[in-house]
């Protein structure tokens, strides 16, 4: 039995990320190419969420992060609202195409998988730039801080974002694509890929991707982004890849570092509101802002500069 359990854990540790990145996204591509109704992609997303929760329980990075802290229901609301916004934005693409004429620049003659990969790379750049700006521009940080208030990392809180910030990020990533004629089919698969990436990026599963951790924006590197000290956590902004972080010199990785809840959150706001309604309204209040001082990254965990 012990050998069987060990084999299962090893299989999930090394197979989980490929199963999500290739298996789940691949299934979405196959279903879309087969002209299957788009609502079947919701079933694929449900499978991805189930896989995420299973992996987190079999190979947890921190077993404590699997336990509810009166935040699970809130995170489910955030996820439902933000995923609904993504789906609604996909549904409006045909309407936008009629209202706003777009040049026929989209490479529709390319294989479908190449179109999907192209959309991912373009969206990754726009989202990464807005994400970085959200750590430097006060009005953006007000709304992005909602996401950084988490004190445990698990798949579902990847979508724990203020809907306004989610909208800004997705607009930056998708608007350039829409302006050159992004097809609805490609947009649908891209929307699923974003959800899958967020599940992987915030996963509590201790999975292994080897050297790819320096290229793909997955949980091993993204934990550094959630360090609670300003400057220290201003790294690894990429959603899908770390390409732009390497180019912007915002990539950070230390294989010896272990993370726990005491290192997550917002250092200067340890009592950040935790309920859904308060998180939606807090950025509009006077207390919802932070003063920015320094953005120089440091490895010193004693640093508590204000944002």
TrEMBL record:
| Segments passing through the bilayer | 12-33, 39-59, 80-97, 109-130, 174-200
* GO molecular function per UniProt: iron ion binding; oxidoreductase activity
Tell me the keywords, alphabetical order: Membrane, Transmembrane, Transmembrane helix
User: Which compartment or compartments is the protein found in?
Assistant: Membrane
Q: Where is the Fatty acid hydroxylase domain?
A: 117-250
The principal localisation class reads membrane
Q: What are the recorded Gene Ontology BP terms?
A: lipid biosynthetic process
CC per GO annotation: membrane
Q: Which domain of life is it from?
A: Bacteria
Q: What protein is this chain from?
A: Fatty acid hydroxylase domain-containing protein
Q: Which organism is it from?
A: Mycolicibacterium sediminis
């Amino acid at each position: 039995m012990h050998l069987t359990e060990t084999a299962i854990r090893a299989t999930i540790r090394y197979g989980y990320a490929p199963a999500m990145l290739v298996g789940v996204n691949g299934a979405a591509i196959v279903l879309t190419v087969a002209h299957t109704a788009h609502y079947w992609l919701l079933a694929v997303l449900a499978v991805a969420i189930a896989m995420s929760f299973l992996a987190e329980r079999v190979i947890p990075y921190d077993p404590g992060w699997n336990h509810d802290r009166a935040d699970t229901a809130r995170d489910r609301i955030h996820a439902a609202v933000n995923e609904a916004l993504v789906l609604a934005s996909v549904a409006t693409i045909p309407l936008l195409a009629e209202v706003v004429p777009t040049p026929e620049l989209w490479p529709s003659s390319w294989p479908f998988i190449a179109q999907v990969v192209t959309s991912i790379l373009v969206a990754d750049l726009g989202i990464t730039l807005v994400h970085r700006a959200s750590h430097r521009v006060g009005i953006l940080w007000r709304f992005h801080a909602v996401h950084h208030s988490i004190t445990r990392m698990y798949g579902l809180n990847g979508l724990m974002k203020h809907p306004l910030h989610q909208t800004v990020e997705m607009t930056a990533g998708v608007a350039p694509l829409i302006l050159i004629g992004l097809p609805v089919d490609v947009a649908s698969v891209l929307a699923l890929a974003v959800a899958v990436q967020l599940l992987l990026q915030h996963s509590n599963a201790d999975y292994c991707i080897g050297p790819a951790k320096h290229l793909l924006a997955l949980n091993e590197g993204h934990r550094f982004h959630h360090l609670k000290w300003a400057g220290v956590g201003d790294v690894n902004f990429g959603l899908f890849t770390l390409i732009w972080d390497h180019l912007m010199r915002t990539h950070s990785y230390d294989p010896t570092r272990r993370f726990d809840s005491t290192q997550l959150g917002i250092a200067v706001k340890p009592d950040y509101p935790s309920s859904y309604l308060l998180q939606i309204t807090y950025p509009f209040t006077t207390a919802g802002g932070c003063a920015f001082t320094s953005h120089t990254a440091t490895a010193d965990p004693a640093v508590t500069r204000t944002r």
